[in-house]
TrEMBL record:
This is Restriction endonuclease. GO terms for molecular function: endonuclease activity. The keyword Nuclease applies. Keywords: Endonuclease, Hydrolase, Nuclease. InterPro entries: Restrct_endonuc-II-like (IPR011335), Restrct_endonuc_IV_Mrr (IPR007560), tRNA_endonuc-like_dom_sf (IPR011856), Type_IV_Methyl-Rstrct_Enzyme (IPR052906). It comes from the Bacteria. Residues 122-226 form the Restriction endonuclease type IV Mrr domain.
Length: 226
């Protein structure tokens, strides 16, 4: 009896440890998945906006968006993550699809902000737009002026924070140079926070450099909710 009880206890310990390790592995997969989705989030948000349609009868057609999601999993997620992560995601594809949808939904800008952004055509107009969006979030904002910005387009203050912002209206992903500029501007303007805001996604190299230098990377649609 004692030996049987000990064997049962040993099995329970093994199962418990296996469950803990399995959950930790799944947590790491979720983290890597979220990071990869976050890297492409501005594009995903734009695609969802373009591909989800409502007809004259009020019927929502998601077929093209769902096809885009499948394409994103096949060409980005499954091609970028390690095989073990891919296997876990495939086993729980519905859960990870819902996770992606939730991230996209959270990032969606409201219709009014979309209309405001649609009027932006130049870099100078984008700076003004970003300043207005930050003001909506309760920041006091000053435009630095192109002649002496030292890598800063906006200086914003709220509470105890003094934030320097570099605004990039581009047709390509934002690279390291924007992060490097705002790092220098943070010291020059005596700010405790620094951010780059853009209409585009950020390159993997820019994301890595920003993490090393404590620089925040934002899509413009996040500004009003900061």
């Amino acid at each position: 009896m004692i030996e049987a009880a000990a064997a049962v206890a040993a099995v329970l310990v093994v199962l418990t440890l296996w469950g803990i390790l399995r959950e930790r592995s799944l947590s790491r997969t979720r983290h890597r998945f979220d990071a990869l989705v976050g890297e492409h989030l501005p594009v995903l948000v734009r695609k969802r906006r373009q591909l989800v349609r409502v007809d004259d009868y009020g019927v929502v057609d998601r077929s093209r968006w769902e096809k885009e999601i499948r394409y994103f999993f096949d060409k980005v997620i499954f091609q970028s993550l390690p095989p073990a992560d891919v296997e876990r995601i495939q086993e729980r594809l519905a859960d990870f699809t819902a996770r992606l949808e939730a991230a996209v939904e959270a990032r969606q800008a409201d219709a009014a902000a979309e209309m405001r952004f649609d009027r932006v055509k130049t870099g100078a107009e984008f700076e003004l737009f970003c300043a207005d969006e930050l003001k909506r979030a309760g920041w006091q904002v000053m435009l630095t002026g192109a002649s002496r910005d030292q890598g800063a387009d906006l200086i914003a203050e709220r509470g105890g924070d003094r934030l320097v912002v570099q605004c990039k209206l581009l047709s390509r992903p934002v690279g390291n140079y924007a992060v490097q500029e705002v790092v220098a501007a943070r010291s020059h303007h005596l700010c405790n926070r620094a951010a780059v805001v853009s209409n585009q996604r950020f390159t993997a190299s820019a994301i890595e450099l920003a993490a090393t230098n404590n620089v925040e990377l934002w899509h413009w649609s996040e500004l009003a909710r900061l």
